[in-house]
């Protein structure tokens, strides 16, 4: 069977204004000192695809407008709402005041497997993704409501932060939509 690839105009995507008005999943993505602007852009693009509520950019994490972020975000930095915080603890505290359940995505003692996380569609969630080498800051881990770990079965001990974001956002989307 032949399969013709669809043209962009055949995908029936919503425009920027429609996206801003569209219902989002109750998920905020927090980037804790993510250094790669390509990773940041990828998180924006994935967040657009699955209608994430907002991205919080913290510490050394670069902010739009930025040519390097745009290379991978491809305009998603204009559609997805974002805020900047000087430090991740300030972002975490603000989220807790807004009644979010906050998870660090980290390999930690007593972390829960992403597969086993049960989400309530009536609650709001935030996930914190960390620095490419050092992960989520220990103080942030300590202040989170819990840690989520993606099961891995190979020889490497971690995934790229943008890949991790894609897996986690997709899982939350399936459970919250």
Overall mean pLDDT = 97
The tally of structural domains comes to 1
In the CATH hierarchy, what is the class?
A: Alpha Beta
Give the low-confidence spans.
none
Q: Which topology does CATH recognise?
A: Alpha/beta knot
Strand order of the largest sheet: 3-2-1-6-4-7-5
How would you sum up the global shape? Answer: globular
Number of helices: 7
Kindly estimate the percentage of residues that lie in beta strands according to DSSP. Answer: 15-25%
- For the record, the CATH architecture stands as 3-Layer(aba) Sandwich
Helix content: 25-40%
- Would you tell me the structural class of the helices and strands? alpha/beta
- How would you sum up the major sheet? 7 strands, parallel
Tally of DSSP β-strands: 7
Q: Report Rg.
A: 16 Å
CATH homologous superfamily heading: SPOUT methyltransferase, trefoil knot domain
The end-to-end span amounts to 33 Å
Element string (H = helix, E = strand): HEHEHHEHEEEHEH
Overview features:
single chain; 177 residues; 35% helix; Alpha/beta knot; 7 strands; 7-stranded parallel sheet; alpha/beta; globular; 7 helices; 21% strand
Descriptive account of the structure:
The protein is of the alpha/beta class and 177 residues long. The protein has a single domain, classed as SPOUT methyltransferase, trefoil knot domain (Alpha/beta knot, 3-Layer(aba) Sandwich). It contains seven helices and seven strands. Strands 3-2-1-6-4-7-5 form a seven-stranded parallel sheet, with helices on both faces. Strand 1, helix 2 and strand 2 form a beta-alpha-beta unit. Helix 2 runs parallel beside helix 7. The N and C termini lie far apart (33 Å).
